[in-house]
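Contributing new records

If you add data, match the layout below exactly. Sequence lines come first and carry their own label; structure lines follow with theirs. Keep one chain per record. Anything else will be rejected by the validation script.
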Amino acid sequence: MASLIRKVINTPKSPAPIGPYSQAVLVDRTIYISGQVGIDPSSGQLVPGGVAEQAKQALTNIGEILKTAGCDFTNVVKTTILLADLNDFNTVNEIYKQYFKNNFPARATYQVSALPRGSHIEIEAIAVQGPLTTASR
C-alpha cells in the first residue's frame, strides 16, 4: 500500500494556533481545518461585536486557510459549529449563508459551556481539494 502524504497548512492571514495544533492538515485530498474563533490575525484579539462579528471573522479565517490550500468554500464538505449560546443559532445561520451559497456542507452545531478566549463561536471544517462535481439525485 502506498503511503499518503500529510502536509501542514499554515497562513499568516489566519490567526496562529493558541496551542499545540496546526491551522489545518492535508492528507491526500482531504483538508482538516482546526476550529477557528473570531480572532483577528493582525491583532491576535477577538473581534468586538458579539457572535455575528465573531462568526464572520471565524469564517474569514477558514476562507484564508482554504485559499492557502488552493480551495474555497465550495470545497467544504463538513463543518462543526460550537456555540456558547444555542440561542445564537439563527444569527449564525444568516452569517453562514453569506459564505456557503448552495450545496451546503454537512454540519453539526452544539452548545458548549465555554470556548477559547471567551469566544461566542468556534467553527471547524473538512474540505476536499480539487474540483467537485455535485451529482444530481
